[in-house]
């Protein structure tokens, strides 16, 4: 569905993307995660041919993104936090305006989504709150049964209720679509994504299924029979290592229930007890971001 | 989808469009009433005949075009249209449609309303109003659309416009200061009958540039490249408009001659036996330094009129040295026989004139003059008799509404009776001579042709401001001096024949006059009445 290969984007002297590569398979829901400035929005805008890449290739729906035509755009729903709408139109007028552009527009679905998202049809777009505008954008991105839905920070700045409504709107249609969503609101997207791609400073750190990611990361707590000290060299996959009294804690990025004890004991003497706890996506993201910022680029690839 | 995009723009912009249309119509009605009140008076300015577009309307129109373009701005990465399945071609055509419907339809209605107040035939008026609107669309509205397509919002547009205005001001200052100097060196086409060539070429540059920018922007979204192209187009436009070389303009004009070759037999030669030119005494005692060279015209078809649009004179001295002596315009010959070429010593460029006049060799040594002439042959189209305080009349099928005339007398050839007619649309062609039908004896007519505008094939049709017909009549006394008899105001009562001409051929001639002296061919002063 989406194939990104060695993508570079340079703004003057700043490299926003540095050889980014990833794939989005049909039917999957990929979360593009990364801190602010990691290059998520730039990547999505290149996918939509809003920006041109400096180098590299992007194929979307089988077409080079630079040659994307109305035919492909009529199959892509796009919702972005920063999207600008004709503010003087009412919601209903705006929907009336865009409807003819989509041959597959489903009026029943339009009515259903508008009702579900509780959009005021006669209100001018400029009078809508940010959350309402995002809901309207989503309501305009779903009724034509897009093959691909691209969401750029859709939950940014929204209160819990609106997020919930948006999620419900999305989940109601998500089965039929491939979804690519960029966000740093990781908890909200955890329930709807199948895969995750982690970007840091324009590079892909890893791309993995959500299940694989959850299985791979554990917060490990090692109790020693002496005062704990930090290892001289960080073992492969250990992050955020801390020693407090006789307890050593770290995040293991290569967790395996069978091998954990052996791996720990190979590094540390006097192990009395080892506990490993599953992590939330938010915790994994935070750990990875901190770790990426303290490591050289070459080491990041090890993750 | 074009109509769908237009409908969206209309919903967003109709208050501005309605205001613009109301101002257009109100201006036209106001002008019609104002001019209607003056119908018994005189039109001295052709602009009065055509709806004048006040500056406010131009600015309002530009603002509206800016809004049209920026509803779906090209620069930027947040616009909604970028993620919609909208064909770029449809978007461009929708914007052009908006410009036509929101700007030009009200303008057209204003023109028609104004013209209808004068009871002009609808067909004629419609043709003129449509061609005027097409001209403004291509020459102003679309370039503005291209300009606004380079900007995200009006703040950006205003900043860019101020920058362009600043640069243009400097260019015009430069042009104004150096215009004649450049003219002297390169002989440019501006302010000649071939100005239409430089204007057309400049408009072509503008049109091609506009098309390129619109294509680059709407099909490729290359704002940086488009801004670069805009700079190049603007420089090209200014250079071509102000500095197109005369020879190039004349050569293009030759290609468009309607009867090429008609002037083949026309010959212009120096006539050393010709009488010296006569002038009434000047108020100051000094004899004017200009040379009047007697020439003889032959091969001119009967009823044709010959004009040397531009003639350039070089002096070669006995030592073999030479100097550019004079660059002159408009020497007219109404028939075969004697005539004069007046050398004003580079009147187009004061510094060059002073240099030529202060060269001691010019006034003291015999010299060979080499005169290159670029000439135009005219044939008559129509002839109409009228009282000098004439009533409404038709010229070449065009209604001319009012006429006025007055006599101004001075010591030289500026003694004249001016005949003015305000015509809408301006008839084609619009070069005219006016002669008294029964000149009081012993005075004789001296035909003098005047062209409003240039020799452009579309002159009078596409000029947005229109123009009046204005020409002069002269009488000459038996000594050949131009002046009017005493009580010349009685001439207001006499009849005048107005003849219109069209340019049919352009060609060049060269005259070489060996061994003449400046002092031999200055004017001879004759006593006043």
- What is the strand arrangement across the widest sheet of chain B? 5-4-7-16-11-13
E-strand count of chain B: 17
Write down the oligomeric state: heterodimer
Strand order of the largest sheet of chain A: 6-7-8-3-9-10
How do the helices and strands line up, and which of them pair or pack?
The complex is a heterodimer of chains A (303) and B (529).
Chain A lengths: L1 E10 L2 E11 L4 E5 L6 H8 L7 E6 L2 E2 L5 H4 L2 E5 L10 H8 L8 H11 L12 H12 L6 E5 L7 H14 L4 E6 L2 H5 L4 E6 L2 E7 H7 L1 E7 L13 E7 L2 E6 L7 H8 L3 E8 L2 H14 L2 H4 L3
Parallel strand pairs in A: 3-8, 3-9, 6-7, 7-8
Antiparallel strand pairs in A: 1-2, 1-4, 4-5, 9-10, 11-13, 11-14, 12-13
Helix pairs in contact in A: 4-5, 5-6
Chain B lengths: L1 H36 L17 H17 L16 H29 L5 H27 L5 H33 L8 H26 L2 H21 L2 H10 L11 E4 L7 E2 L11 E8 L6 E13 L4 E12 L3 E7 L6 H8 L2 H5 L2 E21 L5 E3 L2 E11 L7 E8 L7 E6 L7 E2 L3 E3 L17 E5 L1 E2 L18 E22 L7 E2 L4
Parallel strand pairs in B: 2-17
Antiparallel strand pairs in B: 1-3, 3-6, 4-5, 4-7, 7-16, 8-9, 9-10, 10-14, 11-13, 11-16, 12-15
Helix pairs in contact in B: 1-2, 1-3, 2-3, 2-4, 3-4, 4-6, 6-7
Tell me about this structure.
The complex is a heterodimer of chains A (303) and B (529). Helix content of chain A is 31%, strand content 30%. Chain A has 11 helices and 14 strands. Chain A has a 6-stranded mixed sheet, sandwiched between helices. In chain A, helix 4 runs antiparallel to helix 5 and helix 5 (130-141) packs parallel to helix 6. Chain A starts with a strand and ends with a helix. Mean pLDDT of chain A is 87; it is low at 296-302. Chain B is an alpha+beta fold. Helices cover 40% and strands 25% of the residues of chain B. Chain B has helices at residues 2-37, 55-71, 88-116, 122-148, 154-186, 195-220, 223-243, 246-255, 350-357, 360-364, and strands spanning 267-270, 278-279, 291-298, 305-317, 322-333, 337-343, 367-387, 393-395, 398-408, 416-423, 431-436, 444-445, 449-451, 469-473, 475-476, 495-516, 524-525. In chain B, the strands form 5 sheets. In chain B, strands 5-4-7-16-11-13 form a 6-stranded antiparallel sheet. A 4-stranded antiparallel sheet of chain B has the order 8-9-10-14, with no helix packed on it. Chain B is globular and about 85 Å long. Chain B starts with a helix and ends with a strand. The model of chain B is unreliable at 37-52, 402-415 and 459-467 (pLDDT under 50). Chain A binds chain B through residues 45, 48-51, 70-74, 76, 78, 80, 82-86, 88-89, 93, 97-98, 100-102, and chain B through 1, 4, 7-8, 11-12, 71, 76-80, 82-87.
């Amino acid at each position: 569905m989406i194939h990104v290969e060695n993508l570079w984007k340079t703004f003057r002297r700043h490299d926003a993307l540095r050889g980014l590569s990833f794939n989005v398979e049909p039917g999957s829901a990929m979360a593009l995660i990364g801190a602010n400035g990691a290059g998520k929005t730039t990547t999505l805008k290149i996918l939509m041919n809003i920006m041109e890449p400096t180098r590299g290739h992007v194929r979307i729906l089988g077409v080079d993104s630079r040659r994307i035509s109305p035919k492909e755009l009529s199959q892509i729903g796009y919702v972005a936090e920063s999207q600008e709408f004709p503010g003087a139109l009412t919601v209903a007028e705006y929907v009336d305006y865009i409807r003819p552009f989509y041959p597959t527009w489903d009026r029943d679905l339009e009515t259903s989504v508008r009702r579900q998202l509780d959009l005021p049809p006669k209100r001018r777009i400029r009078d809508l709150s940010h959350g309402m505008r995002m809901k309207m954008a989503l309501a305009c991105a779903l009724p034509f049964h897009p093959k691909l839905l691209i969401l750029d920070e859709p939950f940014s700045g929204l209160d819990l209720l609106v997020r919930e409504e948006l999620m419900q709107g999305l989940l109601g249609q998500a089965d039929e679509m491939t979804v690519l969503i960029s966000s740093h609101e990781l908890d909200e997207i955890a329930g709807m994504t199948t895969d995750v791609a982690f970007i840091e400073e324009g590079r892909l750190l890893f791309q993995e299924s959500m299940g694989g990611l959850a299985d791979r990361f554990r917060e490990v707590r090692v109790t020693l029979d002496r005062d704990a000290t930090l290892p001289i060299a960080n073992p492969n996959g250990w992050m955020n290592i801390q020693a407090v009294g006789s307890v050593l804690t770290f995040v293991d990025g290569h967790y395996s229930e069978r091998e954990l004890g052996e791996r720990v004991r190979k590094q540390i003497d006097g192990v009395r007890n080892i506990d490993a706890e599953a992590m939330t996506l938010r915790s994994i993201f935070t750990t990875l971001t901190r770790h990426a910022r303290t490591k050289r680029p070459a080491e990041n690839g090890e993750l | 989808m074009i109509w769908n995009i237009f409908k969206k723009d209309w919903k967003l912009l109709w208050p501005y469009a309605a205001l613009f249309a109301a101002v257009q119509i109100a201006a036209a009605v106001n002008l019609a009433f104002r001019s209607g009140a003056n119908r018994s008076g005189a039109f001295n300015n052709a602009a009065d005949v055509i709806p004048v577009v006040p500056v406010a309307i131009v600015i309002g129109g530009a603002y509206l075009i800016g809004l049209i373009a920026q509803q779906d701005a090209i620069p930027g990465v947040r616009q909604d249209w970028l993620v919609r399945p909208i064909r770029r071609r449809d978007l461009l055509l929708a914007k052009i449609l908006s410009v036509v419907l929101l700007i030009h339809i009200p303008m057209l209605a204003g023109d028609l309303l104004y013209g209808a107040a004068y009871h002009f035939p609808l067909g004629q008026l419609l043709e003129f109003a449509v061609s005027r609107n097409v001209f403004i669309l291509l020459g102003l509205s679309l370039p503005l659309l291209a300009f606004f397509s380079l900007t995200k919002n009006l703040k950006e547009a205003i900043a860019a416009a101020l920058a362009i205005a600043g640069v243009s001001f400097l260019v015009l200052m430069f042009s104004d200061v150096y215009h004649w100097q450049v003219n002297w060196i390169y002989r440019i086409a501006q302010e000649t009958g071939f100005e239409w060539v430089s204007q057309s070429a400049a408009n072509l540059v503008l049109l091609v540039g506009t098309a390129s920018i619109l294509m680059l922007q709407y099909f490729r979204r290359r704002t940086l490249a488009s801004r670069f192209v805009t700079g190049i187009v603007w420089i090209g436009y200014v250079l071509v408009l102000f500095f197109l070389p005369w020879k190039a303009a004349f050569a293009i004009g030759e290609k468009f001659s309607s009867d090429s070759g008609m002037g083949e037999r026309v010959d212009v030669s120096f006539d050393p036996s010709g009488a010296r030119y006569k002038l009434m005494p000047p108020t100051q005692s000094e004899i004017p330094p200009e040379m009047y060279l007697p020439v003889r015209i032959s091969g001119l078809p009967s009823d044709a009129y010959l004009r040397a649009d531009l003639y350039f004179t070089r002096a070669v001295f006995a030592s073999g040295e030479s100097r550019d002596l004079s660059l002159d315009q408009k020497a007219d010959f109404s028939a075969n026989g004697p005539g004069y070429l007046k050398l004003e010593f580079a009147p187009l460029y004061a510094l060059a004139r002073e240099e030529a006049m202060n060269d001691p060799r010019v006034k003291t040594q015999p010299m060979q003059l080499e005169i290159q002439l670029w000439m135009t042959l005219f044939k008559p189209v129509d002839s109409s008799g009228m009282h000098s305080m004439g009533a409404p009349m038709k010229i070449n099928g065009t209604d001319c509404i009012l006429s006025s005339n007055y006599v101004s007398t001075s010591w030289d050839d500026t003694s004249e009776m001016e005949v003015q007619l305000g015509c809408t649309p301006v008839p084609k062609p619009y070069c005219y001579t006016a002669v008294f039908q029964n000149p009081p004896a012993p005075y004789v007519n001296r035909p003098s042709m005047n062209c409003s505008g240039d020799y452009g094939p579309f002159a009078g049709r596409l000029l947005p401001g229109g123009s009046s017909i204005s020409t002069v009549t002269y009488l000459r006394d038996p000594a050949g001096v131009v002046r009017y008899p005493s009580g010349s105001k009685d001439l207001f009562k006499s009849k005048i024949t107005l003849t219109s001409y069209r340019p049919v051929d352009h060609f060049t001639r060269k005259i070489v006059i060996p061994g003449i002296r400046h002092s031999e061919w200055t004017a001879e002063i004759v006593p006043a009445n």
